[in-house]
Design goal:
371 residues; Chorismate synthase, AroC fold; 27% helix; 8 helices; alpha+beta; 5-stranded antiparallel sheet; homotetramer
């Protein structure tokens, strides 16, 4: 289960960064769903290295093969095997790190766990593992779009110390975000982010960043009240992305500094629906969707692979001045955008099916209480 | 599974806030562990309402009964049923809210989910559900202490806008924390927090807060590299606590504003162990424990039950000015401290068994790589 | 999970034979279901010891308490805690066996597993553990009756070498079965079974038996095609009952001696439905329900507690002539009848929710193909 | 989860009979295990069609590719993707059955479930799905052999009405079984089985069969006492194989006709070990291994694809006389032998890790009680 996620819409990823292939199996996708494979390929393109001068130059077409689970383009309700062959492997790049533990990387912790380690670029800890997540998220997106109309959109909110203006609720679109390779809808901030990245790269350095995400049209009632809150499953999903260090919903840490009278939100009817005045809760109350836009944020640390000599030790106990070569990103946030979306989609697809199982939603057995 | 947590050390909580009883079943606890029931009762006492003038005055002795899983005080490897009867139920307090949705509460989202709702104080969404978590966490603590020597300590870091000084790594102890009913080890900050709480209460208001937690002596290697990272399971565990709005590990959101050269941490040997110079990663790298102190933070929003008239609507569509009575906390952070510890302990106990299953740790099959 | 069953309709039993209490938690039961607690109490009465001279004389009222999950008699969608206190514990009966391993019992295997053992009557291996199953099965039955009209009926088919005539498909009813304490609908066979039991008891011996079970009105399409076949989940469920030694569906082992041309079954329309001519498959094809009556059989070995001296050894290595006292059944089959029903009901309730999750059944998303 | 099996050693199979590929992902295999890929290829060869004139003539080399989870031939503790491309697909063979429901097949039940169906040879219901099981079982076998010395051997016990003599406990070996393409170690019976098969085929008919299996050297203590008994997990595993109709452990259904005094088994010491005199229980007591040879049997129905005209109906409601072409086995038992072994191995590998997780076995924490 270490590599599986979800309870009913269940994804298992496989593959090492420089092994034969990476990919995922999606088990539990409802039958009869028409799959647009090109759309999934486009999601992979958004995550792919080599897209712009500001990301890793590894050249991978990341061409998707769907090996099972479809007949005549429609899902059969059986496991969907999604696979991408690794092509541009340069294990030689990694020879120097076979014995040394790279600072900030999972080299030592992985080896402490397993007693051995795939030294070719991080193995399972590599961002390349997220290909399977993005492909699986593509299936989830098509399911949620067809059945419910849910829309999930993520974007870069800050890179290093450069922030951006917060978009109004409901205003953001994928077009605005994909206009820039940095995936930030605030044009002016984008150019400052680019400067910061160029400068960091010039100094052989890297930058952290924050990715924000909204999920629109999630029906009120999705989620669970105790351990499997939508809130907690989203937290798990997003904190499982490599380099994630923090997670917030709604006002997040700012809520901790607020009074109840500030944070509470009036309830009212608008267009025949139960609504809140300000969606302070970010669409989640008691772990269950309120019907408002779900709003979350994820903090990513700066990439650990920097072009500077660092102090470390080797497996055999020697001290070492390490200079890492290889092909790396100066900031993970832009390429993390499709991964954040994918993880949110996987959580929502799973909770869609869980809600349907428990209540029969949207059938007659689940009478929502609102007038 | 909605009310279960953990894969091998598995807890299922049950009970509504004003039902007959609340509690938990712990399945998967190793056999032969001597259980100190008084120690678990003490954990419950730290969580209990009515401890001080600054928490809810509901009077509940929260007396623990252990109904199964033990013989002569030792675990049998079978499910341990931990149960507390509810005594001080005042359903009358809740009559006025039977039809109205309380702002900031899960009333509406719960009803949208289920088509009905237990109006007696929040049902499963009540903080009373956490009794089962704390009791189960007490079992986890005794297992981890005996087998591994792990220690988990949480404390209040801030209440509203009042922060406290950050304790040095390794310096904090439970005695320091329990010295104050606010569970903050910084005495000076404590008195300012108390003032802030008294003031908030006088204004019929409530405050948010941040709880910090460290886990000491977690062996390097515990955790998983992909979805079930220790990081992501901790995030899920802590974001499942009522009122949690944010989660951080290590530098958290601050890491997103840092350069790689600042955030990276040298590796070195100290006392024959692989260590990092500064434990910037907060004890978790690639989702796996590094052997350093694990450091996390959780943000809690201010309680939604405030003594002010609020605007809301009823199930039948009427607008309503709602004044909530009942017995409530002005800030959840102090009583959340034992709940945070419990959730961290449950995650660690589960990953202890998972690590043992996968690698045979600490037996001969799992040779950690460090010299 | 060792004590949990089911994926969506999930039951966890707890309690040792002579501990404080036994029971179960049902998690995942849909909300809004009216629960008839008396009906569940009646199920327990059918399983209870002391019902007739032919079963164990232990006196237990087995009075059910429902501690959570209900409000005003309806399910809340939250865990339902079902509990029965143990009253007639006579641990003294078991003193002689504290050190000796009873032949045919799980004493040695349990101790080999756990390093210790609850010597009071078998602990978790006791048939008393099945109280939680029967209570949980009672919830499942009420769900399946209300939502789908499924009916599950089990009966004793043979005791020792005494068989009974096979009832015609569709003809059997609970009234016919409960007419005799032996739970066999064939009156004439009943009296021969009774004679066999009296004779066995006179010789200080016990008898095996076979329980048959049908599930009526299970909709075509329930089940899964690979590992989680309805067939395999039923097999697991029934082989988990203490003393079960064999399981069959449809023609069972007899099918292995048949030709394809005998075993194949024509398909046809009857009353507008897709049917088979003879339901040879026992209602299950490829692990999925065909819409016909599901027909299964379970073999139970004779109880191991017999009133004869047996050869065994003790924990400390001594040989011992053991004479077991205590209160035991001469044949488990009659009291196994409600347990068999409960396990089948638990499997069906789980697959009902799984089918609903995957396909939206019976909603518009799942269009069965038949005309 | 519909296509996953196991809790810690977890297998997910994928692929349709005539899709691009079939295979499995094994997640949870301990790290550092040297994998002999040729040995796994040999397991597949035993399951392969076209081996002899008595099995399906479909020509598939079933060449295994391992796409992930290994580095330098050793497991990394990460998911192992095992894959076989489908080559000899003849979808044209299946055109006539696209609309008609084949008697005895899962065509109708599958379509009733999913609202659609892969008509190319049964999709997931095809025996081709078992390739993933056999490959995964090959990994399990290598783990169990290295760590524990467990050996699992299955053979054909009967075909149609032709039985064979029961081998003495402990005497059977894989060489004896593989001496005949029918996988029956009783040479004399083999030639009668062959005659029966030739005769059946001449009449356009097919035959059922029984496969027996033993697991040697399973340590006392493996298994769980309640739902996840080794007994019940084996039952589930084996009843999930296509065409399985019955399952027995130890004396099976014969036990139901026995007296307790016959079925009980003395306990004694032999060679310093706790043993039973006759291993009547088939190595399983209370669901937990006794340390004796585990003995089980599985009944398979005759294949439904026979070369005779059968009566059926089509999706659109017409009656049809159906003559099935395609390439089929006259009896599944011989090719089921490696599948039975694989499923038993998967159950044992899973319970090995579960036992290790719960008790630390074979480390110091799990002191078995026997002297």
């Amino acid at each position: 289960m270490a590599s599986s996620f979800g309870h009913l819409f269940r994804v298992t990823t496989f593959g090492e960064s420089h092994g034969e292939a990476v990919g995922a199996i999606v088990d539990g996708c409802p039958p009869g769903l028409e799959i647009d494979a090109n759309a999934i390929q486009s999601e992979l393109a958004r995550r792919r290295p080599g897209q712009s001068p500001l990301v890793s130059p590894r050249v991978e077409p990341d061409e998707l093969e769907i090996l099972s689970g479809l007949f005549n383009g429609r899902t059969l309700g059986s496991p969907i095997c999604l696979q991408v062959r690794n092509l541009d492997c340069k294990p030689a790049d990694y020879e120097t790190i076979e014995d040394a533990y790279r600072p900030g990387h999972a080299d030592y912790s992985t080896e402490a766990k397993l007693g051995l380690r795939d030294p070719r670029g991080g193995g399972r800890a590599s961002a390349r593992e997220t290909i399977g997540r993005v492909a699986a998220g593509g299936i989830a997106r098509q399911l949620l779009t067809r059945d419910v109309g849910v829309e999930v959109i993520a974007w870069v909110e800050s890179i290093g110390k450069v922030g951006s203006s917060r978009p109004d609720q409901g205003s953001i679109s994928r077009e605005m975000i994909d206009a820039s390779a940095l995936r930030c809808p605030d044009e002016e901030a984008c150019s400052r982010m680019e400067e910061a990245l160029v400068e960091a790269r010039e100094h052989g350095d890297s930058l952290g960043g924050v990715v924000a995400c909204v999920a629109k049209a999630v029906p009120a009632g999705w989620g669970e009240p105790v351990f499997d809150k939508l809130t907690s499953d989203l937290a798990k999903a997003l904190m499982s992305i490599p380099a994630a260090r923090g997670f917030e919903v709604g006002e997040g840490f700012a809520a901790a500094a607020m009074n109840g009278s500030e944070h509470n939100d009036s309830m009212l009817f608008r267009d025949g629906k139960v609504r809140t005045a300000r969606n302070i809760a970010g669409g989640l109350s008691g772990g269950i969707a309120t019907g408002e836009e779900i709003r979350i944020r994820v903090a990513f640390k700066p990439p650990s692979s920097i072009a500077r000599t660092q102090e470390t030790i080797t497996r055999t106990g020697a001290e070492k001045h390490l200079l890492i070569s290889g092909r790396h990103d100066p900031c993970v946030a832009p390429r993390a955008v499709p991964v954040v979306e994918a993880m949110v989609l996987l959580v929502l697809a799973d909770h869609y099916l869980r809600h349907r199982a428990l209540t029969g939603w949207p059938g007659p057995m689940a009478g929502p209480a609102a007038p």
